[in-house]
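Lay summary. Proteins are chains of building blocks that fold into shapes, and those shapes determine what they do. In this project we predict the shape from the chain. Here is one chain we studied, written as its sequence of building blocks.
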Amino acid sequence: MGSSKVKTTIRSLFASYLLAAVFLVVLAFLLYKFHLKESHVGLAVSAIYVVTCFIGGLLMGKGIRQRRFFWGFLLGALYFAVLFAASFLLGKGLPMDTGQLLRTFIMCAASGTIGGMLS
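And here is the predicted shape, written in a compact code that computers can read:
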């Protein structure tokens, strides 16, 4: 992997997490203001995963310009891996059940792939 591919990957991943942070702050405000139910919050967090991985996949595809679907998939998989590692290290164990873990991986990887393909 060339230096420019590594830089593009890190830049796209950073942009995805920065966007996720902004969306999570907005979600926290909405939770405070409107007293949202836990089911709504879970759905919103899943939507944030999808949107941020999609945008990250778009950035990866535009930055690398070859095999865009693969690079979008890689972005989604790395996004999930960082989320999983942080949850594992901070939570001292598996963060959720295996089914939910698999669904989250699929959401991240698929939306990254679609973003890469549409870039």
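What the prediction tells us: Residues 27 and 117 are 28 Å apart (CA to CA).
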